[in-house]
């Protein structure tokens, strides 16, 4: 579900960029989405003790990992679609 929403956010970002939106705003929208997904996962899966900075640092690291995971899914998407249509 998070990957599908990323595709939607990415598509809306590309459309808004082509219509003249500031590129920094487009990048910020994607970054906020990825940080939000990462933060939600951190809250759901882990319990943090100590300061809130522990959660922020862990979420930043997790954002990098989730971004890499999503990038791999996006790169592999054309092959997956091609294989799916060839099987039908």
Topology record:
Elements: H1 2-18, H2 23-45, H3 52-87
Helix pairs in contact: 1-2, 2-3
Spans with pLDDT under 50 lasting ≥5 residues?
A: none
| Total separate domains | 1
The helix content, as a percent range, equals over 70%
Distance between the termini: 24 Å
**Strand elements, count:** 0
Rg on CA atoms, Å: 16 Å
Q: How many H/I helices? A: 3
Question: β content, as a range?
Answer: under 5%
What is this structure, in a nutshell?
The chain is an all-alpha fold. The chain is built from 3 helices and no strands.
General description of the model:
The protein is mainly α and 88 residues long. The protein has one domain. Helices cover 86% and strands 0% of the residues. It is built from 3 helices and no strands. α1 runs antiparallel to α2 and α2 packs across α3. It is flat and about 50 Å long. The two termini are 24 Å apart.
List keywords for this structure.
0% strand, mainly alpha, 88 residues, 86% helix, single chain, 3 helices
């Amino acid at each position: 579900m998070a990957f599908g929403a990323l595709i939607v956010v990415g598509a809306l970002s590309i459309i808004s960029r082509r219509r003249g939106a500031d590129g920094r705003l487009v990048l910020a929208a994607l970054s906020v989405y990825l940080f939000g997904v990462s933060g939600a996962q951190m809250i759901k899966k882990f319990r943090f003790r100590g300061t809130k900075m522990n959660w922020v640092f862990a979420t930043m690291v997790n954002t990098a990992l989730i971004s890499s995971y999503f990038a791999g899914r996006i790169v592999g998407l054309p092959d997956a679609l091609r294989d799916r249509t060839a099987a039908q």
